[in-house]
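In the current project phase, work has continued on tokenised descriptions of protein folds. One protein thus recorded appears below exactly as we store it.

——
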Amino acid sequence: MGRLVALSLLGIALALLGERLLALRNRLKASREVESVDLPNCHLIKGIEAGADDIDILPNGLAFFSVGLKCPGLHSFSPDKPGGILMMDLKEENPRALELRISRGFNLASFNPHGISTFIDHDDTVYLFVVNHPEFKNTVEIFKFEEEENSLLHLKTIKHELLPSVNDIIAVGPAHFYATNDHYFSDPFLKYLETYFNLHWANVVYYSPNEVKVVAEGFDAANGINISPDKKYIYVADILAHEIHVLEKHPNMNLTQLKVLKLDTLVDNLSIDPSSGDILVGCHPNGQKLFIYDPNNPPSSEVLRIQNILSEKPTVTTVYANNGSVLQGSSVASVYDRKLLIGTLYHRALYCEL
């Protein structure tokens, strides 16, 4: 009898594990392929060889790139080189990506930048917020951008128990931001279990010097985050649920969910087109190819444009798609004055004139 019970329990456990594995494959879109959607005037950006996970562009056309991200278990084309912040002036006729110097005292050797966001204060001071994973830990770094010297002055490192697995950030003040946690846990093995069993424990946190609080939760894997042009709404990408959440922002900085837009791809970082308010989304058509890297079958890239997301039927169009022959693992797309930048998790970056 005891053996029969043990065998039954083993069978139930194996069935559960098999069901979870199948569900994970579906969440990763493991069988999806893309048809190419090409843009005519594009070239790869020189100097970006190992990823530009996030891009943020100032109103004056200065674009910041977060480059060289490394994560446990994720492929890297430059595993021994620290990450950095690059800048490109999109008002130049032939813009080039230049690495910004960072002030003395900041640990450059362990710099591992992820999501980024800029904030312009009332006195025109530009702050750059950077999600950083030094030695695979989680911090938020705040820099002051010094344009005349093409440098970043490090001002502050933020650590907090409510920021255990930070992915992306949107600055809403000189020391204030919303951030996504793509997992509840910080330990890599516990993160894996959290993802495998689809626990939906990821969240969004609001941080200020006086208050830190969870303002939205229940996400499969909260990823990219941004804010509407009128500052009334926060947009959050849930990468493994293939969703973009629209949340209303309240005076006390709390958020309430307004709607969810379901898509057929893994949604990563979100950018806002300043001329229209449209959302540009860097996407991964097939997450399994992204996480299990095969140079003979590389991850593909996809960029979507979402118009009128607050309407009953938003318009979703594919701006760019590639099977990995040009660009692998697109994570972000940002536009300025008909110039499109597409970054990737660990590959190259693309510059296009629309």
Remarks:
- The chain has one domain: 32-353.
- Helices lie at 2-27, 188-196, 287-291.
